[in-house]
Amino acid sequence: MSSYQSLIRYPYTGRTVFEFLTTKFPYHSPDEWTFLLAENRVKVSGTIATRDLVLREGDSVTYEPIPGRIQEPEVDTNYTILKETEDFLFVDKPGNLPMHPAGRYRTRTLLNLLEELYPKIIPVHRLDRETSGVVVFAKTEESRTWLQKKFESREVKKEYLAVVRGKFDREVFLEGYIGKDLDSAIRKKMKFSTDEFLDSKSVSTSFIPLCFNESQNISLVLVRPVTGRIHQIRASLLYMGYPILGDKLYGPRETMFLDFVQSGLNPELLAELGADRQLLHAHSVSYMDERIGESVTVFSKPTEDFLFFFPNPKDYVP
């Protein structure tokens, strides 16, 4: 099992190693962290750490887990094969299933599940753990390379559905830049800006309003990303003032994510989030396959949590 690495930034600067570990990684109990520190499995910037060592901005904390000691979280394994060809597998991913091993998820992933049935299967692109919908896997390295080049040249068209807070009442084509949010306490958080900034990359996305639920003050939006950056849709919607319902990282309050890490999805946080996962759904993937002279389009129907708020998708989903 590989080691985990974290870069120290606010609010963990000035805290001890033990405070950092027990706060950020509550899946180990304080006694378990005491044991792991005693086993020299925690290092700070390459040096074996003591529990009372005070962390500084920019320190790198590395933790080497003991196989079998982490209890993996429960996931939704009810994926569906939408379409299968000689080269590709189009899978309908549920909203609580990681794509591949990372963090606490080592075996309960979509890739692991598919590898039980297919001798070789390779992700062509990825979805966040809480994002549902269609995702493509290749059966050979050659087919993965072929389709990935189409993604890179923007020949693959993707559509998403998003449930957002507020009334989204006009079509928007948003262009700008995305990169790491250095002002955030959360290392993996990105930010959108209309101005270029350090290490940012250009992004562009089209947002089309579909329906408004007045009683809940939420909108269903069709999203067509032109570029394919990490967290592009979520960060862009937050910038426009329409955060995705259930999004802990890009919600109206950033500390939602920190609260979730520390205390889990308790009733109070769930009520504030409005949904138990971010309501973002990969609705369709389409591209031209010149090798067979056909256009390929695969759709994924909205999930039950979408239908709870918008029960008649055929009336407004293209």
Summary tags:
318 residues, alpha+beta, Pseudouridine synthase, 3 domains, four-stranded antiparallel sheet, 8 helices, globular
Protein described:
The structure is a single chain. The protein is 21% helix and 29% strand. The chain is an alpha+beta fold. The radius of gyration is 21 Å and the shape is globular. The protein has three domains: 4-63, Structural Genomics Hypothetical 15.5 Kd Protein In mrcA-pckA Intergenic Region, Chain A (Roll); 72-153, Pseudouridine synthase; 161-280, Pseudouridine synthase, CATH 3.30.2350.10. The strands form two sheets. Strands 5, 6, 7, 8, 9, 10, 11, 12, 13, 14 and 15 form an eleven-stranded mixed sheet that branches. The chain has a four-stranded antiparallel sheet with strand order 1-4-2-3, with no helix packed on it. The mean pLDDT is 92.
Summarize the SSE layout with pairings.
Elements lengths: L3 E4 L9 H8 L5 H9 L3 E3 L2 E2 L11 E4 L16 E5 L3 E6 L16 H6 L6 E2 L8 E7 L2 H12 L4 E9 L6 E9 L9 E4 L7 E13 L4 E8 L6 H9 L14 H9 L3 H7 L6 E10 L4 E6 L4 H6 L9
Parallel strand pairs: 8-14
Antiparallel strand pairs: 1-4, 2-3, 2-4, 5-6, 6-8, 7-8, 9-13, 9-14, 10-11, 10-12, 12-13, 14-15
